[in-house]
């Protein structure tokens, strides 16, 4: 959070008056996902004060918007949750296809199934969910989900999993050959049985502080995201991102504006600002995930040669928005697993 954001938060908490005409923008994003330098640049360029709050799962973001009157102006959910939010009437129609940001978006990300007319969303980053290992603690192969889901003795009690079911269940489905969003109880029982059998080998179910947990040796393997592992590796951590032959879970996060947001115009300014070639390049270099925008290759920090994590050599299957019946099965699997 920037200094000006902290000042604003203090003023609000003490009931103090803000300067006349002060404009704010309240972001609710994945933890540590937006470049602080770009936030400061946006504040300087526009005079708009930016407040940042964070989450670590799509489920948390959805719950916050479902509660109503969240107070947020921009959120960055993944593709299947964008679809759910649209279907539930939780987002503002911002005519995204008519925004300057849309013209800098790579064609392959336009008019996708989660927002066919691009009325509601502009993509900001994409990548994969998989798992990483600490190479000082685990010396074996990382070419299959079997390593994580059916671990050998060298990983028993040394595995970390996410604290929410979204990508974990999808990964288990990929490994087992179970269709995403199946409504078949027998198929989902296969997923449950796999995760239940894995559970004695799991030290923690948490989406927080994964870098410290894995690099520090608290666990030897952890379900993780590509770019987060990349940042840890390039900072010297002894970690490696797996390339399971069965494939990785794909995700694409987008800027969306919650229904009833107070600062829609400021939100759209921020989206356009973040989507220019210059700023999208800087954001990709900071976040260490692939950008869906047209970025400057000459200034891009990551390439297939130095960042295999974000240029995967195995299939990538993007998570889908499930029917209520299918989602209920996912929830039941997870609830029963953690009991």
Can you tell me about this structure?
The protein has 339 residues and is an alpha/beta fold. The protein folds into two domains: 24-126 and 251-309, Periplasmic binding protein-like II (D-Maltodextrin-Binding Protein, domain 2, 3-Layer(aba) Sandwich), CATH 3.40.190; 127-250 and 312-338, 3-Layer(aba) Sandwich (D-Maltodextrin-Binding Protein, domain 2), CATH 3.40.190.10. Helix content is 37%, strand content 17%. The protein contains 13 helices and ten strands. The chain has helices at 3-14, 36-46, 58-66, 79-87, 100-103, 146-149, 166-176, 185-198, 210-215, 226-234, 264-274, 277-287, 324-338; strands at 23-30, 48-55, 74-75, 121-134, 159-161, 202-205, 221-225, 239-241, 248-256, 316-318. The strands form two sheets. Strands 4, 5, 6, 7, 8, 9 and 10 form a seven-stranded mixed β-sheet that branches. Strands 2-1-3 form a three-stranded parallel β-sheet. Strand 1, helix 2 and strand 2 (48-55) form a beta-alpha-beta unit. The longest helix has 15 residues, at 324-338. The protein is globular. The relative contact order is 0.18. The model is unreliable at 1-20 (pLDDT under 50). Spermidine binds at residue 320. Belongs to the bacterial solute-binding protein PotD/PotF family. Keywords: Periplasm, Signal, Transport. InterPro entries: SBP, Sperm_putr-bd.
